[in-house]
């Protein structure tokens, strides 16, 4: 029996452009023999299904249904491919929970918490072999002391919006005099900021997913960029960053990374596929947590499709198992 899935894309932040590309990859690789897929675009203007042959049809948000040519379509589940709000911050998950409709991502609470980098770090602190960079959290309408921050943290720092992804609004500060302007830039994106000590090392990202009832860690990717850090341009402009999957690391480091990634997945109560970014200090020493993405990109060049291929799986099978695990 075929399942009827809504593939939800778009969103209300600057990341919607990536969401549209992710949804295109997912739609292309969802098995047509197993799923009837309706791609639904969510924007500030409304939620619409856009069939190729006719005008767009608005979703009835009372029960998340579509009426097409007099026929009411209800869904078995939702494949959420929205990066940023409202797909990654728990808002949609809360809505679908109220409708009792399963979806492919982490639940509302985990999604909401992991959108906040400071709160996430507080939860994963204490996981064996996992290190956290020293940081300060500041709020827009609350007094903060630049002098105290400079006293507490060693330069250079990363200044980043506490919520959001794709490295928008993020800066690396190498001179104390530039801290205020970096804070001002980040406050344009968010009302809470994280100022963190810079950790020197190699940058990696690893996908973690529950398939066939067990947590699977995908082959890690090493990211090298000529830029100061892996920013929006490095992420989405071909040729700016070099990505190597599987990452060239020693077998014992790989085993340690996999155990830590599983522990993070469990401690944050994740479901579906997530991606954890980390830094490995010199000579594969310490593993530093950067952040977790609960709806990682699925564009043709994104890390998860690369890692799925490196694991010897076809995207088609991967998405089938993902839907089976999360939606049933």
From TrEMBL:
GO cellular component terms given for this protein: cytoplasm
Sorted UniProt keywords: ATP-binding, Cell shape, Cell wall biogenesis/degradation, Cytoplasm, Ligase, Magnesium, Manganese, Metal-binding, Nucleotide-binding, Peptidoglycan synthesis
InterPro entries per UniProt: ATP-grasp, ATP_grasp_subdomain_1, D-Ala_lig_Van_CS, D_ala_D_ala, Dala_Dala_lig_C, Dala_Dala_lig_N, PreATP-grasp_dom_sf
Residues that hold Mg(2+) 1 according to the record: 277, 291
GO BP terms in the entry: cell wall organization; peptidoglycan biosynthetic process; regulation of cell shape
The enzyme's E.C. designation: 6.3.2.4
Active site: 15, 166, 302
Positions annotated to bind Mg(2+) 2: 291, 293
Keyword Amino-acid biosynthesis tagged: no
Free-text remark on how the cofactor is bound: Binds 2 magnesium or manganese ions per subunit.
SUPFAM superfamilies: Glutathione synthetase ATP-binding domain-like, PreATP-grasp domain
Subcellular location, record wording: Cytoplasm
Main location: cytoplasm
Cofactor(s) the protein requires to work: Mg(2+); Mn(2+)
Catalytic activity: 2 D-alanine + ATP = D-alanyl-D-alanine + ADP + phosphate + H(+)
Functional pathway: Cell wall biogenesis; peptidoglycan biosynthesis
Domain of life: Bacteria
Family matches, as Gene3D superfamilies: 3.40.50.20, ATP-grasp fold, A domain, ATP-grasp fold, B domain
Domain ATP-grasp stretches: 124-324
GO-annotated molecular function: ATP binding; D-alanine-D-alanine ligase activity; metal ion binding
Functional summary from the UniProt entry: Cell wall formation.
Family to which the UniProt record says this protein belongs: Belongs to the D-alanine--D-alanine ligase family.
Protein name per UniProt: D-alanine--D-alanine ligase
């Amino acid at each position: 029996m075929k399942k009827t899935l809504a593939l939800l894309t778009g969103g209300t932040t600057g990341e919607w452009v990536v969401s549209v590309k992710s949804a295109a990859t997912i739609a292309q690789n969802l098995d047509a023999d197993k799923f009837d897929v309706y791609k639904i675009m969510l924007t500030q203007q409304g939620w619409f299904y856009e069939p190729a042959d006719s005008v767009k049809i608005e979703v009835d948000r009372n029960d998340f249904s579509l009426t097409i040519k007099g026929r009411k379509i209800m869904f078995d589940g939702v494949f959420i491919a929205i990066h940023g709000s409202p797909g990654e911050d728990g808002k949609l998950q809360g809505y679908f929970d109220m409708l009792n409709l399963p979806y492919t991502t982490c639940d509302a609470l985990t999604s909401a918490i992991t959108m906040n980098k400071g709160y996430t770090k507080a939860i994963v602190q204490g996981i064996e072999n996992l290190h956290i960079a020293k940081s300060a959290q500041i709020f827009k309408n609350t007094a903060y002391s630049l002098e105290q921050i400079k006293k507490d943290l060693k330069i250079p720092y990363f200044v980043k919006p506490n919520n959001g992804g794709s490295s928008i609004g993020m800066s690396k500060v190498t001179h104390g005099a530039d801290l205020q302007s970096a804070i001002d830039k980040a406050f344009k994106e968010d009302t809470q900021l994280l100022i963190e000590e810079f950790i020197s090392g190699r940058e990696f990202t690893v996908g973690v997913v529950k398939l066939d009832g067990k947590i699977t860690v995908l082959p890690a990717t090493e990211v090298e960029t000529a830029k100061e850090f892996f920013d929006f341009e490095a992420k989405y402009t071909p040729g700016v960053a070099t990505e190597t999957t599987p990452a060239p690391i020693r077998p014992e480091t790989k085993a340690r990374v996999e155990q830590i990634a599983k522990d993070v997945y469990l401690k944050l109560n994740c479901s579906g596929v997530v991606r954890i970014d980390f830094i490995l200090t010199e000579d594969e020493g310490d593993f530093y947590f950067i952040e977790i993405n609960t709806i990682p990109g699925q564009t043709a060049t994104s890390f998860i499709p690369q890692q799925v291929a490196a694991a010897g799986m076809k995207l088609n099978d991967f998405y089938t198992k993902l839907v089976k695990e999360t939606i049933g």
